[in-house]
Amino acid sequence: MDNKKINVPVGAGGILIITIFISLCLMIFSVLSFASAYSDLKLAKRAQDMTEDYYIIHGNAEEKLSEINDALFEINTNKTSGKITDKLSSIDGISFIDEGAILQYEVYGEKNQKISVILNILQDSTGYYYKIASWKLSNIDMPDYEDNTIDVWKGTE
Amino acid sequence: MNNKLSLNSKTSLWEIIMSVLIFTVSGVIMLNCFGIARFTQIRANDKTIAGAIIQSDMEIIKSLNSADEVHEFLSDSYDSNNMDNGKYVYRKYYDKSWKQSSIDKEYAVCITLSHNNSKSGNLININITAEKEKPYPFTKKEGLNKVFSVDSKKFFPASGGSHG
Fold first, then answer.
1. Do A15 and B9 touch (CB under 8 A)?
2. CA B126, CA B151: separation in Å to the nearest integer?
3. Which one, of A94, A95, A88, A103, lies nearest residue A133 by Cα?
């Protein structure tokens, strides 16, 4: 057996450089993992804000519905004469289409979302009642695409 | 033929002390950073899961036809219920991996209902909150037990009103 020794001199400062290099690498990894986790948290918070806002405006739309039903109930109980639009117009934020047969209102949220409700006001032997014709969630402001027309390829020339 | 590798180091005591010192300082910063990252990720995941649970329950409540049906559903699917200042409080518990459990109570989802009876129906104020029993370590303490919370209302007409 022929044993041969190879001496590799590390030199002064070698260990210090290796330590600094390893520490730096680990610190970069830790900062990157924190940045990744923090961006996940920001996304989750944004989703939470949107959800909270949606349920608040949904609740407000339901509250408005109860006000309208109360007003209709009042009209049915008191058997008051006159236009139904006059009775319901006291409720804030509602408008009429088709001479009171269709009623609509919108509830706005803080996160660029609104609920638009359309109600059909119907009448039977018991009196007036509403029927929900449409309950739509949409954005308040839509982005303007008109100025950003893109010249797309239309196929072979 | 065996080649033996030996390091002929010329390290001084000063260098070793400096290395240990640097490694200790950076280690403390690193561990803190990894710890904060881990619990920030857990917080983000908790928010997402709690949001899904809360939205699911809220949509079920919104789809029901009367206040009685709401109470029936909540009595069946929640672990406990009680009255507090005229409000109905329903509570269910989850373990660390968000599985419903009444033994390992790591998270709690609480529904508070208050009835606002009007002339023509019943308007219910609904609050659903997901909470963590213990606060998250490595992060600021204030208000962190609350994971997710939503407020809404549901109107059940006594007469008239219907969905077309």
1. yes
2. 6
3. A103
What residues contact residue B109 under an 8 Å CB cut-off, 6+ apart?
B50, B53, B54, B57, B91, B92, B93, B94, B128, B129, B130, B131
SS3 state at A59 = helix
Helix or strand run (H / E) with residue B9: none
Q: What is the pLDDT along chain B (164 residues), one digit of tens a residue?
A: 556 655 555 668 888 899 999 999 999 999 999 999 999 999 999 999 999 999 999 999 999 999 999 999 999 999 888 888 889 999 999 999 999 998 889 999 999 999 988 778 899 999 999 999 888 887 666 555 889 999 999 999 886 555 54
- Give the pTM: 0.82
Question: ipTM, 2 decimals?
Answer: 0.84
In Å, how far is B117's CA from the nearest CA of chain A? Answer: 10
Dist. CA A54–CA B146, nearest whole Å: 19
**Chain A residues in contact with B12 (beta carbon < 8 A):** 12
Chain A, residues 80-109, CB within 8 A of chain B, namely none
Number of alpha carbons in the 13 Å side-chain half-sphere of residue B28: 5
In angstroms, the separation between the Cα of residue A12 and the nearest Cα of chain B is 6
Q: How far is A48 from chain B (nearest CA, A)?
A: 7
- Structure-block tokens of residue B26: 């950076």
Residues in chain A: 157
